[in-house]
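Task: fold both queries, return tokens.
Query 1:
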Amino acid sequence: MATGKKTVNVAVKSAKANKAEKIGKSGQANQTAMAIAAHPDDIEFMMAGTLLRLKERGWKIHCLVLSTGDCGTPNETKAAIVKKRLKEAKASFDLAGFVFHPPFVGDLEIFYEKKLLARVISEVRLAKPSIVLTQSLTDYMEDHDATARLAAMAAFCRGMNNIYCTPKRPPFAGDCAVYHALPHGLCDNMRRPVKPELIVDVESVFPLKRAMLDCHASQKLWLDVSQGMDAYLKTQEDMARTVGKMSRKFQLAEGWLRHNHLAFTREAAADPLAEALAGGTVRL
């Protein structure tokens, strides 16, 4: 009888140890985050610092870029720029140690429609994230807005048995919180400033965030010509400094707005991004 109790106690301790090991540093069982953005370099501008901070704390990071970036050039052919931008994106995510999900649609072809949603759902099911980071719902251009809607709905549909997705992949259960980055330029599509509710300190990882953006060499000329963004690396830093000032604590930062929790997380107060980066965030 005593031997039986001892065996049970050992089994219970072993199960608790395994559970603790799975939960890891942040206190969360599923330490996988996924960033979903429209174009090559969007993640680097507004999300990469937060992703790098999560990776420092043991999280696995997946990055999905929807578009090939085929219109992001003033003079190259479509085939040439697609090849170049894919190479740049791979170099950036390899540098950070992120899992890269290649694009499958062209620039200005990102719409909230069934076929594209089915692809995004499939990629989310492949990664099985507990946190999805995506773009603002009110950004300066439609590709960004549509991507934000697709990402949120793909996370919403993660566990639905009867939803169509392609390639076909099984649903997964569990909480999946969605966060929206600040819009590019920190203003919505009507030029109104957008303030975050959660600010993440990215100063320690900013050199790598900058190096990731610097991998996108083809975009310097394009942004200079199309949007007047001279010295796009400086633009990246300027936005991070502005968000840092909003925190009244950090020098360089990224800001986030949390999507409504309904059907995403069980608790209204669930804030896994803040929990995972405890000590390096400010809530406004």
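Query 1 returned. Query 2:
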Amino acid sequence: METKQSNNFDWAVSVAVLFASLILIYVAFVYNLPHQFEYVQQSKKVSNAQKSIYTSLASYNKDSEFPFVKTNIDNIYYVAKPNSDVEFYTYSGGKFSAVSRVKKLQLSLNFNGQKIPVIISYIQHGGKTLGFGTYVTDRTSKIYKYAFFKLCDMPKNYKSKSDLLLLVDFDAKDIFKSNKSYSEVFELNSKTLTATRAISIKGQNISVATGAMRDDFTIIDDCLLNSLNDTLVFLSSRNYKQSNGIYGTDIYSQKEFTGSPQLVAANVLDSFVLQTDKGILYLKDTSKDENKSFSLVLNNGKEKIISTFQGQIDDEYLRCGKYLFCKGTMTLYNLEDNSESVLLNISMNNIYTFAVSPDQTKVALGGSFENGMQKLVFYDLSIKRFKAVEQREIIFEDYPNLCFEDNNTISYIKHANSVDMIVGNFVINWDKIFSILP
């Protein structure tokens, strides 16, 4: 009896020591990164038995401390580290190569009385300017403890003496996401380094939580930014989040830094706004009685409903750029040209990410199951066939960054194979998926 109690005691002590060790490892891991990054979970080691044929087909499959994030320039990725120079890489033939000609801008900007210094690393590639910078502080006295900066060219024909736009995101959970939303926008003169707010802050409400200007006064995401021409178009939800039962954002436009922005549309859904030659496209709630629905609207001075979708957008749909995906009917909608395609014979729960190839013939879907398994589906719309892969920790759910580099190359972020790293960068060739996978 005494021996059994002793064994039980030894077992309990061993479990306690192991548990304490795991806690210490995690605390050390979090301590070595800024607190803004603590949502990143420690990766688990993947056993050899879990490795699949799919993994062996990868053109690139390597772990890293911080992920490669795709930009809107073909084959260009960046790596953002806290309070460090952002690095740029080109991807070609299964290899990431560092970009050597990286320029830098050193700035100090005022946000609600707090000076934020930042070094913007930028490149000029294919006639485009693109740059990024990060700011992180652990000082609790600061209003802003994190900021991410994006530098890009001024919209074509936008009336400004400056040649660049500088956008700022204060949400640390977006740091590794390929599509971000920005709540501050500046006009930046590259010669004088003079930065002026491109959007007036008149009427911008104060956040009770932070004491700073509310960051939902200005919302410009990367999808909207890529469609800008001669007008700055942005969203604001400041009048809605403080009211119960009201859901939506307002669209504003501005052609130059004078006067107040003009209201384009009120109480629109999601953050989808796309400028086209025919006008501005957005989504709007058109529910009647208890039947939930929303519509695609074209506004060229007057609203016109283009198409209507049944159900609630938050629960039943996903959006990636100009594409909308209905999880219930497995229907893919192109909101720009108002076309649709049905993905046949796919059974998949909890879909949380998807991507569409540039030529619109291929779709990749990512989802998970209750037993911890994850699933990736690769669907060819031209032949109505698909390949599927099920595996644990195959993709990072928090920021999968699933995207097509080109019509035949897919990249995404997965869990690291090693406990010493956080993420794995994975690139695979579409042709290999269909020719080799069973």
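Both queries returned. Flag for query 2: The two ends are 56 Å apart (CA to CA).
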